[in-house]
Specification:
Helix content is about 35%, strand content about 15%.
């Protein structure tokens, strides 16, 4: 939902094209500019209905949340049982400042102590795995608390590939 949020902000006039271009929106913002007004309105309505995350059950990880950035490390919400409420943390980060939510420090910046308190396992992207894997590879980055499956498909010049993760079988496919 995150690149879609850039599109929504652009259509609402809250994000200029140059800024979006900087964050990878060059082609998309040009395509949107070419749309008729009615099509732009229809797209905006669709985008505003998208969810920030999806909850699933995994036979391997139990409760799981799929989202783009994970959680903003500055907007962690603790539940009454002392755990990090991942869903509420995502919403708080978005409501606090939706642009910062898109470009600020994400789950990769949480301390180990905070990660150990997550109430859901998180499947995320946002940061290309060649930036976090110790060997610089474009394979999924898997921890006991979250996995990053952004294997750099948009960065073919760096060997980026598309990663598909099957929740049911805990298998990865790379294309």
């Amino acid at each position: 939902m995150y690149h879609e949020l850039f599109a929504q902000m652009y259509l609402e006039g809250r994000l200029d094209g140059r800024t979006w271009d900087f964050y990878g929106g060059v082609a998309t913002h040009r395509q949107i500019d070419a749309l008729e007004t009615a099509d732009k309105q229809e797209l905006l309505e669709y985008l505003t209905d998208l969810e920030l995350y999806t909850k699933m059950d995994s036979p391997v990880y139990g409760g799981m949340i799929l989202t783009h950035t994970g959680i903003d490390h500055e907007c962690v919400v603790m539940s009454s049982d002392g755990r990090v409420d991942v869903a509420r943390s995502i919403i708080r980060g978005y409501e606090n400042d939706d642009f910062h939510f898109l470009v600020g420090n994400d789950i990769h910046f949480l301390t180990r102590e905070s990660l150990e308190l997550l109430d859901h396992y998180i499947v995320t992207g946002h940061v290309c795995t060649f930036n976090v894997n110790p060997d610089g590879s474009n394979k999924a980055y898997v921890t006991p608390y979250f996995m990053d499956i952004d294997c750099g498909c948009g960065h073919k010049d760096r060997g980026g590939i598309l990663c598909c993760y099957c929740v049911d079988t805990n298998e990865f496919q790379y294309i």
